[in-house]
Design a protein that fits this description.
This is HNH endonuclease. The protein has 380 residues and is mainly alpha-helical. It folds into 2 domains: 18-228, no CATH class; 247-379, no CATH class. 48% of the residues lie in helices and 5% in strands. It is built from 13 helices and 4 strands. The chain has helices spanning 18-37, 45-51, 59-62, 64-73, 78-91, 112-130, 148-158, 212-219, 274-284, 286-312, 319-335, 343-355, 357-379; strands at 187-190, 207-210, 249-254, 261-266. It has a two-stranded antiparallel sheet. Strands 3-4 form a two-stranded antiparallel sheet. A hairpin with a 6-residue loop joins strand 3 and strand 4. It is elongated, with a radius of gyration of 26 Å. It binds zinc ion. Residues 170, 172-173, 175, 210-211, 213-214 line the site of zinc ion.
């Protein structure tokens, strides 16, 4: 049996407004169904109102970009409208088919004439409504106007620490998500880019807050499925909420360089996942970003911690006692890796210090000399 697949790198919970987002997606599906099966060749406001009466969605067509979007959808041939509806219906459930060899997202394969008119419609839904000041309104939603800020805040609410505090760990790089009220509680990444997969632009399974560096500077609009346009492509990537990569990777040090460099590699015995690791690395460039943190801060943090343990404690300084303290520190850092930025990297670095005998010897020498010096100075 497969090991339980915990759910980018970290397993996190979906936003608290997940149900609201699903209701919105169902509404969009009903709108696309209405467009697909209407015999009309032009959009008719009264007919729309009649069809959606009592659902609390009257505002929808008062919105210019949406009305324009719907009018354009009505210009499509009926078979194309049906194909668009089917694509939305299939794409929105993608997360239930992640393991299927014969599944693929349908929107990218729709005829260009359909994509050209459908994209602005989806863009209006996300950018102008969810992301704008309007927000989604309909019967049954838990907030009067569902906006992007609810999605972000709801994510941090769902993933807060056990002590109730904000959890600032970026699920992709495990660094810090710096949150200010000004940026509306972090960037929201469409893991599968909305320009290529607009059907997923309001899917709670595809939206995840990331740190600014990950979202804007590194991943940007890269398509995780770029190299996998065929059926079963989703098998080759880690996925937020559904297929996290943290247990599939391990970190090694590249010894050939004069500067130490981290290398993210697949955990031994999980060869099948190496392709996912490779893709993740290509998307988020962890090797380079994580390497930057070794020489500057990680070594110093470990060193300072172990030295203080000996200076403050009674224990005799021996190789065995140093190893014991390193192991204890490793376990403690691993325990908080999902809630404290960079603790995972710190733990991995401690692990490297412990298993590599060269590194351990150097580390031991360094702290022994420092501690002896400090004790001597203290006695004077
Ligand atoms: Zn990040």
């Amino acid at each position: 049996m497969r090991k339980e697949e915990k759910k980018i790198l970290l397993q996190t919970k979906k936003t608290n407004v997940e149900t609201d987002m699903r209701l919105v997606c169902q509404f969009i599906e009903r709108v696309l169904h209405y467009v697909a099966y209407s015999k009309r060749t032009r959009f008719n406001i009264n007919d729309f109102k009649k069809n959606f009466m009592g659902q609390g969605v009257d505002w929808f067509i008062r919105y210019k970009a949406v009305r324009g979007g719907l009018s354009n959808l009505f210009k499509l041939k009926q078979e194309d409208r049906k194909a668009l509806h089917l694509a939305f219906q299939g794409d929105i459930k993608f997360f239930t088919y992640l393991e299927r060899l014969n599944y693929k997202l349908k929107f990218p394969d729709l005829p260009n004439c359909v994509k050209k008119v459908a994209k602005p419609f989806f863009e209006a839904l996300y950018d102008d409504i969810l992301g704008g000041s309007t927000g989604f309104r309909m019967n049954g939603l838990s907030v009067p106007q569902l906006r992007r800020v609810h999605v972000r805040k709801g994510y941090f609410e769902a993933n807060k620490k056990t002590n109730g505090y904000f959890n600032p760990v970026c699920p992709a790089c495990l660094g810090e998500i710096a949150v200010t009220e000004k940026d509306g509680y972090a960037d929201l990444d469409h893991y599968l880019t909305k320009s290529i997969y607009p059907t997923l632009s309001i899917s709670p399974d595809n939206l995840i807050p990331l740190c600014k560096t990950c979202n804007e500077n590194i991943k940007g609009a890269q398509d995780p499925l770029k190299n996998y346009p065929k059926k079963g492509g989703l098998l080759n990537i880690f996925f937020p909420y559904h297929r996290p990569g943290i247990d599939s990777i391990t970190v090694e040090i590249n010894q050939r360089d004069p500067d130490e460099k981290f290398m993210v590699v697949t955990v031994k015995g999980k060869e099948s996942e190496s392709i996912r690791v490779e893709n993740f690395e290509a998307l988020f460039q962890l090797n380079e970003r994580w390497s930057g943190k070794i020489n500057s801060s990680l070594y110093e943090t470990v060193r300072a911690h172990i030295i203080s343990e000996f200076i403050d404690g009674e224990e005799l300084l021996t190789e065995t006692s140093v190893r014991k303290k390193l192991n204890k520190m490793y376990t403690a850092e691993m325990r908080i890796r999902s809630t404290v930025p960079d603790s995972y990297l710190l733990a991995q670095y401690i692990n490297i210090l412990t298993v590599s005998s060269d590194k351990f010897v150097g580390f031991y020498k360094d702290i022994t000399e420092t501690i002896e010096l400090e004790l001597k100075e203290g006695c004077l």
